[in-house]
Design brief:
This is TVP38/TMEM64 family protein. This protein is an all-alpha fold and 224 residues long. It contains nine helices and no strands. The protein has one domain.
């Protein structure tokens, strides 16, 4: 498990660098996103949907505030179209991350983890816990992209990956988009509460998962 955690930290750090760059340069601020969506809304709802999909897709390459964008999608498009646009963007990002890592993963894995034994340990650990890690990845803006890349890198079957990704992304998109649809500038409370509750829920679930791993590891040590 240590090898997998090491790999996660390295990949997450790479994504975090893009987040810092975006944050410090102001290239993709929340204010700019709201402005772009407002302009798109004045043209057509379809332009808003396309912009939402594109913003969530580039999250694979540049860390963006996913939850905020989905809430804004619900605000500008309504619950249904906002959720559909968000889910499409999330799935495009996840599938692309999986496929790119599937193709170049072995080389990237060798680059990030030099030791062959550590590489195999990371692969075995993700095969054991990867499905659950994808389910809980919405606890952090960077974790979903990390788990998508790890899925392809470690050879997780695509069917298994996409099932976990859909289970994780669908309720997330539906809830966040609905919260945005019932929020307004005068009453942003539903969006704020949803953001807090979703984040807290996934972090609590992640804590329980971490305890499960520790207990599972301890049982394996005792029985070995």
């Amino acid at each position: 498990m240590k090898a997998l955690l090491k790999l996660i930290v390295i990949i997450a750090s790479i994504f975090a660098v893009t987040f810092v760059v975006v944050k410090t340069t102001g290239v993709l601020s929340i204010e700019k996103v709201e402005h772009w969506l407002t302009v798109a809304k004045s043209l057509s709802a379809m332009y808003v949907a396309i912009l939402v999909v594109c913003l969530l897709f580039i999250d694979l390459f540049i860390a963006v505030p996913t939850l905020t964008i989905i809430i804004l999608a619900g605000y500008f498009l309504g619950a249904n179209l906002g959720a559909i646009s968000a889910l499409l963007g999330l799935c495009l990002a996840g599938i692309t991350g999986y496929l790119l890592s599937k193709k170049y993963g072995s080389r990237l894995l060798s680059l990030l983890l030099k030791d062959k034994e550590q590489q195999q340990q990371a692969i075995n650990s993700f095969k054991t816990y990867g499905f659950t890690m994808i389910l809980l990845s919405r606890a952090s803006p960077i974790l979903p992209e990390v788990t998508a890349c790890l899925s392809g890198m470690t050879g997780m079957p695509f069917s298994r990956f996409i099932i976990a990704w859909f289970i994780s992304s669908t309720p997330y998109a539906l809830i966040a988009a609905y919260a945005g649809s019932i929020s307004s500038i005068e009453n942003p409370k539903p969006a704020l509460i949803t953001a807090i509750v979703l984040t807290a829920f996934f972090w609590f679930a992640w804590l329980l998962f971490h305890r499960y791993i520790k207990r599972d590891k301890a049982i394996k040590v005792k029985t070995s």
